[in-house]
TrEMBL record:
Protein name per Swiss-Prot or TrEMBL: Sec-dependent nitrous-oxide reductase
Gene: nosZ
Gene Ontology cellular component annotations, sorted alphabetically: cell envelope
Keyword match Electron transport: no
Organism: Pseudochryseolinea flava
Keywords: Copper, Metal-binding, Oxidoreductase
GO molecular function ontology, one term from the record: nitrous-oxide reductase activity
Length: 661
């Protein structure tokens, strides 16, 4: 989205008159006071009404905020290493970031989807996309931990992702950058039309949440931007916005903006399932990683898969249809009733709303205007319900409330526009500060929106916050939508660059939130389930320390017999069975990070003993009055110095005096 700026400014004509500053920064003078501000006030000790699960963009993380207070509760590392808790640094979590390209400790996370049952939030999981090295992650909302990451083969730029079907049957992920796929990928870039393909991966989610790619649709080389599943009457269908149907491969700013209309792609996935059952799929070789956290061993593992099933919609009729949509559509959103599909052409001067029932009729009547790469193109008018005229400039995304209204973000005119879905009439506008990207109404993408608020996630914050050098904070803005007019009630900073977010009522997650890991369930192979079980073992040049942590000591806290060149594995089990008492572990000179061990959990820090000496280690999380005492020493001896492995806690030996030893 950072590039959209440039893209929009590159367009001649209607948009030329606007500059990024068209919405004049007016600054703190527009401060919100009195009644409005008090709506966002959550008194000390009181809980927020909603959890806001917010993508972090280029930080590869998710931020968890309270609404209406805007308070930040947690950062969940997903595709990025996180030294704060050792994610991607501990031996247990490293496999989570494995890919067919090896260890990839970063990604660009734009969208999240909260799991649904019957089209309503069920509070089980959040899914998130990695754009760059195409991946989809699953986060468990009991522990707020990333528990699974599945890489997507034959994909470039996994942007149109992760979108879910009504009962979380599938998570769907499609490609922004078409790429050559198959056996021969060493082709001229200029052979784009012939060799470059898009793919839409349908990832099956089982009842325990585990993901596997059921099939991929191979499509013509266009860019998929966003997507939404049908619901209610349109359950069984999926809708995708596309751009670059020009199939340009250079200077897209100009070359991908030639056509007056791109497409919404409608996919009948129930039909695709039938073809799959009839054996019409083709197994294709491709390598991709599947990483899973085992919550009883606390270890993640990574497996490289070798094959994926593909379906060709040009051959297998009745799966895919294109609907013309003006102009370079970005968002593609389905209203709570499942009847209306909103395409937001970021260069269009109107918002088209398509009707699912009209689309069905158009397909039945074969009301086509032709085909695109062998796939039927439905006539625009035959699928169109109507157009919202003069909504604003640069429509991007649309969310819905429970009263038949839609809220569309306008990047260029920097506002949220409220309009009535059935009547296609603009009802209200509220400025955003500045250049809104995504927006979120709690429950907005579900069958039963919770409403109450709309939250804007902005691209520019100039003058809203204290300056912090060349880059200012990222930010969101909260509007009360309980009345007819939207009312700005809060600005709050966010981490990373927020794109899509969802908000879910606190009562759906709070009761499920896990407080500890039960020690009796800890099946970690290196766990020490009691101080009596601690030990230090040498295996060749590996030293394994089975360590425990409890307020306020580490066992063992004196370790000798490590040799220079050894790889030392500190397997630390937190023996606490009490909520909110993690212990941390860090050792001098470690080339990675600390580990933060939750109550009842075991985590491992690998440390290369690359020099001779005595090295302090300690607990990093202020856990008790004697936290500063929670420390120890590891002695590393020269390889030729005959020091036996020896370890203890609380053992006072006769003091050795004098030099040496
Ligand atoms: Cu509009 Cu990447 Cu969802 Cu950002 S995308 S705004
Ligand atoms: Cu344990 Cu500080």
């Amino acid at each position: 989205m950072k590039t959209l700026n440039k893209f929009v400014w590159g367009m001649a004509g209607i948009l030329a008159a606007f500059t990024i500053y068209s919405c004049k920064p007016s600054g703190p003078s527009e401060a919100i006071t009195g009644d409005a501000a008090s709506k966002a006030y959550v008194a000390p000790g009181k809980y927020d009404e909603f959890y806001n699960i917010v993508s972090g963009g280029f930080n590869g993380q998710i931020g968890v905020y309270g609404i209406p207070s805007g308070r930040l509760f947690k950062i969940i590392p997903v595709f990025a290493t996180f030294p704060e808790n050792g994610y991607g640094y501990s031996e247990e979590s490293k496999p989570m970031l494995n890919t067919a390209n090896g260890f990839v400790p970063w990604d660009d996370l734009h969208h999240i989807s909260l799991s649904t049952t019957n089209g309503e939030h069920d509070g089980r999981w959040a899914f998130a996309n990695g754009n760059n090295t195409p991946r989809v992650a699953r986060i468990d909302l009991k522990t707020f931990k990333t528990v699974e990451i599945l890489e997507l083969p034959n994909s470039g730029g996994n942007h149109s992702s992760p979108y879910i079907t009504e009962n979380t049957e599938y998570v769907v992920a499609s490609t922004r950058f078409s790429v050559p796929i198959g056996d021969n990928t060493d082709v001229p870039i200029s052979s784009f039309k012939k060799n470059f393909k898009g793919t839409v991966s349908f990832i099956k989610v089982d009842t325990s949440g585990h993901m596997n790619i059921a099939f991929q649709l191979v499509t013509p080389g266009v860019s998929f931007d966003l997507a939404r599943a049908g619901k209610g009457p349109s359950h069984g269908w999926f809708f995708f916005s596309t751009y670059n149907t020009e199939q340009a491969y250079t200077l897209l700013e100009v070359n991908a903006s030639q056509k007056d209309k791109d497409f919404i792609m409608a996919v009948n996935w129930k039909k695709a399932e039938e073809y799959l059952k009839q054996g019409k799929g083709k197994t294709v070789k491709s390598k991709y990683a599947h990483n899973v956290l085992n919550e009883s061993t606390h270890m993640s593992s990574s497996e490289i898969l070798e094959e994926v099933m593909q379906l060709d919609p040009a051959e297998l009729k009745d799966i895919v249809y294109f609907i013309p949509c003006p102009k370079s559509p970005h968002g593609c959103d389905v209203d709570p009733s499942g009847e209306y599909i909103v395409g937001s052409g970021k260069l269009a001067a109107l918002i088209p709303v398509f009707s699912f029932s009209k689309l069905q009729k158009a397909i039945a009547d074969k009301s086509f205007e032709g085909d695109f790469a062998g796939i039927p193109v439905v006539k625009y008018e035959s699928a169109l319900y109507g157009e919202v005229q003069k909504p604003g400039l640069g429509p991007l995304h649309t969310e819905f409330d429970a009263n038949g209204n839609a809220y569309t973000s306008m990047f260029v005119s920097s506002e949220i526009v409220k309009w009535n879905v059935k009547e296609l009439k603009v009802l209200d506008r509220a400025p955003t500060y500045y250049s809104i990207g995504h927006l979120c109404v709690p429950g907005g993408p579900t069958k039963k929106p919770h409403g109450k608020y709309v939250i804007a996630y902005n691209k520019i914050t100039k003058d809203r916050y204290l300056p912090t050098g060349p880059e200012l904070t990222q930010s969101a803005q909260l509007y009360d939508i309980s009345g007819e007019k939207m009312k700005l009630i809060l600005d709050f900073p966010t981490t990373g660059e927020p794109h899509y977010a969802e908000a879910i009522p606190a009562e759906l997650l709070m009761p499920k939130s896990q407080k500890i890991y039960r020690l009796e369930d800890n099946k970690h192979p290196y766990a020490a389930l009691g101080e009596g079980k601690t030990k230090v073992e040498r295996k060749g040049n590996e030293v394994h320390v089975y360590m425990t942590a409890i307020r306020s000591h580490l066992t063992p806290d004196n370790i000798e017999g490590i040799k220079q060149g050894d790889d030392v594995y500190f397997h630390v089990t937190n023996l606490e069975q009490d909520w909110d008492v993690p212990h941390g572990f860090a050792i001098k000179g470690a080339n990675n990070a600390e580990i933060l061990i939750m109550p009842g959990e075991t985590q491992t820090l690998k440390w290369k003993a690359d020099r001779v000496g005595v090295f302090p280690f300690y607990c990093t999380d202020f856990c008790s009055a004697l936290h500063q005492e929670m420390q120890g020493y590891a002695r590393v001896s020269a390889p030729n110095n005959n020091v036996e492995i020896k370890y203890s806690t609380g053992k006072i030996e006769d003091q050795i005096t004098g030099a040496g030893q």
